[in-house]
Amino acid sequence: MSEQTHGMVKRDLAPGEEEEHSVGARILGYVVGLVLALLLTATSFFIAGTDLVWQPSIPVALIVLAIAQMGVHLVFFLHITTGPDNTNNVLALAFGLLVVFLVVGGTVWIMANLNANMPPMDHIMMRQ
User: Fold this and answer.
1) Is 25 within a domain?
2) Start-end of H helices in 1-128
3) pTM here?
4) Do 92 and 124 belong together in one domain?
5) Distance (Å, rounded) from C-alpha 110 to C-alpha 94?
6) What residues make up the domain containing 126?
7) Residue in 42, 77, 45, 69 with CA at minimum distance from that of residue 58
8) 19 φ, ψ to 5°?
9) pLDDT by residue (tens digit) across 114-124?
């Protein structure tokens, strides 16, 4: 079979390289992402400020909406997908999250240790 009978021939893509899309399709993707992000943000403000929702469930609802917001940003704006050509991006994101959690966790651990080992303030004031 020749290439002419199959129509368009797909070419290999380098990691991080996207297939060529029209400008209209790309703008439509960004607009859909923007609308979803705005909808999730408005829903978060509505849930936080209303009495229509059972009060103990508000923090859980806000956490779920925040995770959904992160998903919208990753897919529509950062173009993180599960495709085979996107493995490097996913690994870079995972490594970045690991570094952030290590830095924040280490900082909290050090501050808690310092707080536990500090003498009481009234003991320091009596020395002077």
Assistant:
1) yes
2) 3-6, 23-49, 58-72, 87-117, 121-127
3) 0.65
4) yes
5) 24
6) 82-128
7) 45
8) -70, 155
9) 999 988 777 66
